[in-house]
Every structure is written in C-alpha cells, then in structure tokens.
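Take a specimen:
=====
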Amino acid sequence: MKQTFEVANIRCSGCANTITKALQEAGFTEVEVDLSCEPRKVTAVITDEAQSAHFKAILRSLGYPLTTDDRGFGEDTILKAKSFVSCAIGKIN
C-alpha cells in the first residue's frame, strides 16, 4: 500500500535524488518525492509498521525528518546540516 509522509528540509531535486536513491537501495518501491507543495511529501509502498519505521529512519539519517517529529533546536540544526550534505550529494549524482 502506498503511504505518503510530509517531510522537512527537502528543498530541491538534489534532495529528491538522494532520498529516492537511498529508499530504493533499501528495497522500497514506487518512491516519489513531491516538490510541488509545501511541506514536501515522500511516497512509497510500505506494507507494515516495521517497514514504516525503517522508511522514517532512513529519511532521518539523511537529514529529512517527518514534519511531525519532535526535535529540539540542536537536533534540528544537525538535521538541517545533514540535509544540506545529502542535497549536495544528490546534485552530484
């Protein structure tokens, strides 16, 4: 079943490329990143709670937490820095 999540820190196609590649490498299918709206949305086929948790963990490790995630100022700053690096990598690839 396709599920869609609102994700923070996605700014451009570089971000979308990094997210798509990481999720596909982890086995997720039909990955889509919607850059046309704010907040940005990421969609993929997710079959159970364990897969959902893995999906969210991958996004967070790249610096793209869900908009609903609780994060303090320090953690938010770190995630933004990670997303900046992820974005740059996505632009190169």
The CA atoms of residues 28 and 91 lie 21 Å apart. The chain has a mean pLDDT of 94. The radius of gyration is 12 Å.
